[in-house]
Design a protein that fits this description.
heterodimer, A: mainly beta, seven-stranded mixed sheet, four-stranded antiparallel sheet, globular, B: mainly beta
Chain lengths: 107, 118
Amino acid sequence: EIVMTQSPATLSVSPGERATLSCRASQSVSSNLAWYQQKPGQAPRLLIYGASTRATGIPARFSGSGSGTELTLTISSLQSEDFAVYYCQQYNIWPPTFGQGTKVEIK
Amino acid sequence: EVQLVETGGGLIQPGGSLRLSCAASGFIVSSNYMSWVRQAPGKGLEWVSFIYSGGSTYYADSVKGRFTISRDNSKNTLYLQMNSLRADDTAFYYCACIAVAGLYFDYWGQGTLVTVSS
């Protein structure tokens, strides 16, 4: 199965700053990658699919890029509600697999 | 509006059985691909099982032979029957819709906690 590795494990960012989260795949996932946001005590929420397409209702400050084995989630200007854990998930090759998550915390 | 509500979690002894339910509204379960995804406390996400609209089912190796996914079309409800439960099955279990465009999860329930402990 494809192993998804996210970095860093924890990212400390000040409100208003830019956050860049990385997701590396052990083999190519093409653009078949999704990003999720999870806040404490809540279910994950779909942010991005197809590596770069925002899900319904997701603000434009969230953007996804990359393909193959190196993919990135960028939050252009962090808002207070963006501090959470972010997971990537590939769905190019069975079985679908998740990264271990990146926690974005307030600096 | 799509809504998924899981019930049935709780404390169960190792070797026991439990059935989780996921009541859906705003869409038809039998017309969609559905899934269960779990998350051990403080850990990452792990898909557990899929059921496709045609009825085909798939399981993660970690639960194969012990868990069974099913649905009741008349109740618009998804189920996960869990047998021979082990301590490492302890997790929040989420019901999720699988997107039309690919095997990613576009709607999630709030989750139900299963604790396997003596």
